[in-house]
Amino acid sequence: MPDLDPLSNPKTARWERRRLEILAVAEAVFGENGLAGARLEEVARRLGMRRPSLLYYFADKDALYDAVFADILDALRSRIEAARSADDPMARMEAIASAWVDFLSRRPWAARILLRQIADELPPRSSSVQTRSEQILASVREEIEEGVELGLFKPIDAGVFATAIAGTSMFWVTAQPVVERSLGFDPLAPESLERFREVLVLLTRQMLGAGDGHSERSRS
After folding, report:
1. Which of residues 47 and 181 earns the better pLDDT score?
2. What CATH number corresponds to the domain at position 124?
3. CB of 208 closer than 8 Å to CB of 165
């Protein structure tokens, strides 16, 4: 019986590996320069390829940017879904908050891209990118709604929660060079990240109403 996995084809596997290499380099270029300032020539130069060869994989700069953005959201969603494995609703929400900082601290250029998308007031991305964003928000909304139904959480809009956690995490990561120069500590050092994670957990509990009577009512 023939192997139906397309990546079992050596040519297809090489194409996919090259595509992932392009996305990784493009993430850094877009993170450094923003969408407007990024150049396909620079992406191609860092990869040791010619611009026409790059266009074989992505039709233009917008297509490449959307692919980078989609890859970021796919990886982030994977972490968030993994965080939803705990039995306790509050533990899941704390893990979701922690997943943001874990992900962005490992991919700081991704943090800059997400932040630039907002700060530069860039137009909405392709429908596939928007769908991925909505899926992440839907996961957060499902967890909040379950906690509210159980009487563990106070009602809060999922967008408000996600914006607070994501915005705090993005700033923490992207401000690293300035903070290190002006305040003398590295926000991305393991001990700094652990302290920041503790802050996110406290923020999560405060936004969801932990400790203000909701948990006690659910057990009465």
Report:
1. 47
2. 1.10.357.10
3. no
Q: What is the DSSP letter of 88?
A: S
**Tokens encoding 56:** 């074989």
Instruction: Give the pLDDT confidence of 158-173 residue by residue, as tens digits.
Output: 999 999 999 999 999 9
The CA distance from 132 to 136, in Å, is 6
The answer to whether residue 3 sits within a structural domain is no
Give domain status of residue 175, yes or no.
Answer: yes
CA distance 77 to 79: 5
Phi-psi region of 189 (alpha: psi -120 to 50; beta: other; left: phi over 0): beta
Q: Where do we find the tokens 């991925």?
A: 132
Q: Which domain holds residue 106?
A: 69-219
DSSP-derived secondary structure for 59-78: SSHHHHHHHHHHHHHHHHHH
Task: Say yes or no to pLDDT of 91 above 60.
Answer: yes
What is the identity of the amino acid at 67?
A
